[in-house]
Structures are given as structure tokens and as C-alpha cells.
Write a structure and sequence with these properties.
With 336 residues, this protein is of the alpha+beta class. 33% of the residues lie in helices and 21% in strands.
Length: 336
Amino acid sequence: MQKHVDPAKGFAPDNAPLLQVSAEDFRANFNKRSFEFRHRLQDTKLFEIDQLIELADKILAAGATDRFAAVNYRQANVGTKIGTTPNLGLRETVSKLDQAGSWVKLSRVQDFDPKYTAVFDQLLFEMEGLLNQPLRREITWSTVTIFLASPKIATPFHIDHESNFLFQLQGDKDVCLFDPNDRELVNDKEVEAFYLGNAGAATYKEHLQARGTVYRLTPGDVVHHPPLAPHWVKNGDNISVSVSVAFGTKPLERVARIYQANSLLRTFGLAPVSPGLSPTKDKIKAAFVSRFENRNPRSYADLMFTPVNRLRKPIELAKRVIRRSAQGRGSIKTTV
């Protein structure tokens, strides 16, 4: 877990908060539904293109190849699967965003420059004040991610585990967010596959598009993405710079463990109950999968996927034993 400090002062010239939202609205909507408000991250001067190219150089110099992605999305649309587009060179792509159909992601930038760490701490400090609760005690993983994209680029429909706030700094874009609890839009099996490591598990269903809410983000706007809220993004006519502040928490990890347990149960031909329908079963499932966690995770992948990776071989062995003992018998489906 990353160590955070309380900021001594704000970043705006008038010492105003970076988050321009009422505590009432923030508390009512946080992690439940998408909502939009205003921000003042532009006052930090850290998210201009020249500063971001310098930041990209620091990431490259550190050899942190897992912290960036530069992708050609010229042919992508909202229905394209995540992970099916070619990678590009990072620095060249950043410097030529106005010429190429490119999408660049710089992840966990707070690890490479203390100025970005300070901004992140300030934002978390303000969120705690708005929620009136010790949010940072619950955070298990966090990232400040910067997205740079060429005009007209579309980021495909997908889901994310984290609680997320997307800040628009330059250009404009449409962000369409859907209800995170709509299991007709993204069903349990798709969420389970996502929690097994398939980032593109959620499939866009065009006939359900009307269920989404489209936010037109311009510089100074921020929209909240609740955990598992399906969404897609389309850039406007100019280069777009956005900042995502996202974090996982202990309660969100518990939900992930339940979905992972359900996926494992399906491999035995069982019919698991959806999370939230049986508190007792949820407690048992989460406790079991959690026993296989990495107690000192070094990455998001370590945190999220270590339990299922550790369970794969024992489960395959158990399945073989069950198949041998069940030969010649009819199958029985059990709800668990």
C-alpha cells in the first residue's frame, strides 16, 4: 500500500480546492453512480504536453516498460476489444499526437515524480473531507494514469475494477457510462472472466446503448466512474489530455474475490449465486479465495490475480479426480 501524506496547502493560486463539488453530492453518488463536477488540476501546470513528454522520458529512463502503453487506435471503435490493437513507440507517439491515430497511457506516474505524488495526495485529502471518512485506510492499490489521445480516437467499451475519477485537461471527449449493476449489459460470467484477467471480457451490446449516460467533458470537467461501471470514450476534434485517479479498496477486493470464487465453482458444473444475494455465501467465498492472496503485492496483477493463479493447478487436479469418480453417472447441478 502506498504511503500518503496530508498536503500542507492547495495548488490553486487562491488556495481553493482542486475538487469543485459539494460534499452532499459527492457522498450521495460516490461508488454508486456516475456524476460530473468541476476541477482545478490545470492550476498545477503539470499536465501540459511539454511536461508530459518530460514525464515520459523519466518513465523510459527508469526502464518501467510496464507503466506505459502506446497504441494505434485509428481503426478502433467503441465495440473493439481491449488489447487487439498494435503497440507503438512511446516518446515519438507523444510528440506526434496531432498527426497519428494514437492513444497513450502513462500509469502510476506518482512513482516517477514527487510533484505528481503531491497532487495525488491533495486529491485524496480532499476526497476524505468530502466523504467525512478515512478513505485512505481502505485503499489497497492506487494509480494516477495520464491518457493522451489523437483527435477522433475511441476507447472501446470495457469495465474497470477501481473507483475512478476522470479529469479532462485538454481537448474534449464524450464519455458514456452505464449502470455498474446492470447484469443484462455485462453479465456475471463476463465479470468473472474480467476478474480472471481478461480485460476485454465485457462485450458491447449496441441495442442497450440507450441505457448509458453520455458526458461531454471539456477542460475543467471531471466524471466519476463507479467500480465495474461499463463505459466507452470518444475524443473530439483535438488532442485530448485526461487524468485518471483510481484506487481499489478492501471492500472492492472482497467483491472481486466473490466473483473469482464463482468462476472457480462454475468449472465444477455448479451454479453460483450472484454476489449480494446471499451474505453468508459471499462471506465464505471471499474468505476462501482471500487465503491465497499475495500478502506483499508489487503490482495490480499480484493483488488481483494471485489467488486464482495459485488455485488453478489444485482445481485442475480436483476436476480430474471428480471426472474419474463420476464416469457413468449423470451430472447434478447445485446452487452455491
